[in-house]
């Protein structure tokens, strides 16, 4: 049985608090997280956080590390930068969409 077959709380970097927050946005498994992507999951978590986005390291990097079965601090710097770039691109796209609806 691979690490994708376990409960979220069995995954590296995901404790009960992050698992509960993921459940609140409809993520109940690592395969579901992989489909949504860590970046989009982070954005959804940030939307539910009452205006204070969760720390990138404890959420965005942790979610990516969970999918890779690696502690978030050991993610390559290049990958962390790619995640940040994707996050900014998603946020910019969301802002453009909001402006178009006004």
From TrEMBL:
<dbReference type="Pfam" id="PF04994">
    <property type="entry name" value="TfoX_C"/>
</dbReference>
<protein>
    <submittedName>
        <fullName>TfoX/Sxy family DNA transformation protein</fullName>
    </submittedName>
</protein>
<dbReference type="InterPro" id="IPR007077">
    <property type="entry name" value="TfoX_C"/>
</dbReference>
<dbReference type="InterPro" id="IPR047525">
    <property type="entry name" value="TfoX-like"/>
</dbReference>
<feature type="domain" description="TfoX C-terminal">
    <location>
        <begin position="6"/>
        <end position="86"/>
    </location>
</feature>
């Amino acid at each position: 049985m691979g690490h994708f077959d376990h409960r979220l709380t069995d995954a590296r970097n995901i404790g009960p608090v992050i698992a509960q927050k993921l459940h609140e946005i409809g993520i109940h498994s690592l395969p579901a997280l992989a489909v949504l992507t860590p970046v989009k999951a982070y954005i959804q978590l940030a939307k539910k956080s009452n205006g204070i986005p969760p720390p990138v390291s404890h959420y965005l990097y942790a979610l990516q590390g969970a999918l890779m079965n690696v502690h978030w601090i050991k993610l390559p710097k290049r990958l962390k930068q790619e995640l940040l770039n994707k996050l900014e691109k998603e946020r910019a796209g969301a802002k453009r969409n909001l402006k178009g609806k006004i």
